[in-house]
Design goal:
The structure holds two protein chains of two kinds. Chain A contains ten helices and nine strands. Chain A is an alpha+beta fold. In chain A, the strands form three sheets. In chain A, strands 5-6-7-8 form a four-stranded antiparallel beta sheet, with no helix packed on it. In chain A, strand 3 and strand 4 form a beta hairpin. In chain B, helix 1 runs antiparallel to helix 2. Chain B is mainly α. Classes of the chains: A alpha+beta, B mainly alpha. Chains A and B meet through helix 1, strand 9, helix 4, helix 5 and helix 6 of A and helix 1 of B.
Chain lengths: ~375, ~160
Amino acid sequence: MNLSAIRTLFLGIFLVTSFASYSQNESSALEETLLEENEKENKFDPKSMIMHHVKDAYGFHIIDIGEKKYSISLPIILWTDNGLTTFMSSAFDHDYYGNVVVESNGGKFVNYKEKIYQLNPGEDTLVKGEDGYPANTTKPLDISITKNVFMMWVSMLVLFLIFIGAARKYKKSENFIPKGIASFVEPLVLFIRDEVAIPMIGEKKYARYMPYLLTVFFFIWLNNIFGLIPIINGANLTGNIAFTLTMATFTFIITTFSGNKSYWKHIFWMPGVPVPMKIFLMPIEIVGMFTKPISLMIRLFANITAGHIIILALMSLIFIFNTVAIAPVSVAFSLFIIVIEIVVTAIQAYIFTILSALYFGMATEEHEHH
Amino acid sequence: MDLVTPGFGLVFWTAITFLILLFILKKFAWKPILGAVSSREESIKDALAAAEAARREMENLQADNERILQEARAEREAMLKDARDMKNKMIADAKEDAKQTADKMIAQAQEAIQSEKKAAIAELKGQVASLSLEIAEKVVKQELSNKGQQEKLVEDMLGKATLN
């Protein structure tokens, strides 16, 4: 727990500093042009490769055979001034440098670094501003079925298969003896109940929160694992801040709505301390209300993304040194990191769940003495 | 900064997907699984409690048996004691009876002896009287012949007469 927190902090600092330099250096624009020059020269650029793989994408890129790229086309759903606009991601023909312009429903769209931009009326090509971002465009409201959304639905189906299947097994068996998939699922469910929910929330109130905790745990865990499978690598759902933000928001909403009188009293008017301290503690406690879910959000995002970045960076070594000789080293190191990451998938899902349970426990705790 | 800027689309779909997942799993997976697990735990708890109750009942029965045996032994002891007491009492009673009867018989015998003695004395007196009369008769007869001899006769007669 402590180690993980330190790790999270370290990686967080690492990430923040690297992004800060990425976005704020005066050479940012220069860097961008250099990148494109590199691409023109067909030079390998690890940073853009890594960022491309860590981020979401519109199509599901599977494999390149020779010059031909193969990917699963996914629907792009946009809300523009002309209303709902949909087309398949194959329309961009694997382009994410804004070169291919797709016309649909009276608008012109480009995919620039896996973000859809709508060209302003009258424009035909993408023009980039000095900051490296598109200048002659607007951003439509984008609810496309991206790679991450697709994998999230796959994980949803897998979860349904596993857990509804397990529930059926109980119905069939006599005396509720677990058989088949149920005997695999039951220890995990009992682990969440006996090691997470009951110790954190308490015997009396834990049952209300069990469905949420179980769903969160298995949803995050399965998507962590999916993020590590090489063939669907890059469906980095749990390492996407939008996903962790949503999950943390659910925890925050449930915590806030299940807060009892004593919870709110401890935030706004801390009992048992002198009045000046009460006034002093109130803003701290109010900030604390929000830092808890924010820490959940950043912890999961940073841990998973960091794991992916390390693996991709190790693989990049082969292309940076431009020799096959380095491949055994890269493979050995990434294998090592992948083994760690497999453990991290479970640990991060567990940490998210246990901290959510802890917050629910704090919100529903009955204080009897001070 | 793209990496740490949440995209609206993914937030939207995550929220919807998670809610669907939560709702369906809650209804079709968590409730049946947790229900099955808890009812199994209940039944195990019940079975253990029943076993414990049976064990305790067994112990009670054993204790009962022990107690009954103890009681029977005590009763036997008491009965034996009673019998011994009764025997002693009977012996004592019999002795008492025998003694009384013997006393009574002795008393009767003494009485009989006394009355026999009285009768004997009375008879003796009668005999003495008749003897005296006979003597007097003979003395009278002898006096008639010889005075000295008469006296001698009286003395002889008296000397012979034994007064028991």
